[in-house]
Amino acid sequence: MRFEIARGGSGLTYEIRNIVLIANKLKEYGVEIIWENIGDPVQKGEIIPDWMKEVVAETVKENRSFAYSPTKGIDETREFLAQRVNKRGKTQITADDIIFFNGLGDAIARSYSSLQVDARMIMPEPTYSTHFMAEVLHASFPPNTYRMNPYSNWYPDICEIEQKVKSARSIVGILLINPDNPTGFVYPVETIKQIVQIAKDHNLFLVADETYINIVYGGKKTLPISDLIDGLPAISMKGISKEFPWPGSRCGWIEVYNADKDPAFTRFVNTIFHQKMSEVCSTTLPQMTIPRMMSHPEYQNYLNDRKSHYEKLSNIAYNILKDVPYLIVNKTSGAFYMTAVFNESALNGRQKLHIKQKEIREYIEKLVDGNIENDKRFVYYLLAATGICLVPLTSFFTPLPGFRMTLLNRNESEFEQVVKTIAEKIAEYIESGK
Predict the structure, then answer these.
(1) Per residue in 330-352, pLDDT tens?
(2) Neighbours of 82 (CB within 10 A)
(3) Which domains does the chain have, with CATH numbers?
(4) What is the DSSP secondary-structure string of 173-226?
(5) pTM of structure
């Protein structure tokens, strides 16, 4: 090439997918991988019911399912979703306040890239990688974050949010993820109200990633932000990849609330829409199925069965991991992840697990040689020694060392054995470095 053509990277890595490359290399050596890295219910054995497949099959027979959709999305689907919001009576929207994207990752990327470079979002720490990476890439500066506290059941620090908003004039919006990914924390209504009040007091807008808003269990209660914002400009991000579940559909949308309350917010939303126009539209088929799926008489029962299963697995994992020395674990109440945190004094660069096969041992030793996070070192050794593929918690952009696993395995006894193996290997790993 005449000169360097590749744009310089940000130094950020999407570890949820990156670790797959390492796992696939281990598969070449004969290691059987147990995938706990990514929230794909279908990959973990979710059986899609026949009635759901029939909805898709009937929809695909319609010629228009092969056509472009309107840029904002299928008209009747947006009308259906707007009516669902309006039935609650707290915030009213129209179909024009909804924009569809090719998955929520697309919505996140376009939303953050529509901000001016000196306008920043404050987001939770740890946070879901796609939000973090999109926000940092748009600004090319380190992020503003507020801590989720593992010693207090992952509750966010409300005082910290307010102090940082006051001190950083560049912050224009607050992100909350409810239920939270990666922690599984479910925001109580009172906590959301406090965050809404901070946004009102400081003339900010709110973004709520509500991908898992209908996957709440364990007796916890929450509400969508549309019930609580009371005139505040806000955006809710939603999708079908986890709730149906249909991750391969790549179908997500934003619901814009109170767009007319602030002209700067109106211009921001219009910028998002005009970016979407350059892509023409989002995938038509999954959009068309949404009203038919969500209004199907079997839909809620199916969702309830899945929530019940996640609650069982949450209890199994919590009861095993809560007694592991040097580990902090909170029971998951939403989404389908569990996050555990190591006591900061527990890990060091000397620890390892026994790996029988020489080639695998040498491969892992090369990966962990040098400057590597201590929790990532543990995850790599665990992967090589057992085939269990976790995600290191520091990959969710937090200094807290730990790991995230899923609650998706359809085989409860198999899942229990996986968690017991993790617990045993933690003890072995920590002991090895003493």
Answers:
(1) 999 999 999 999 998 899 999 99
(2) 18
(3) 15-46+300-432 (3.90.1150.10), 50-294 (3.40.640.10)
(4) EEEEESS-TTT-----HHHHHHHHHHHHHTT-EEEEE-TTTT-B-TT-----GG
(5) 0.94
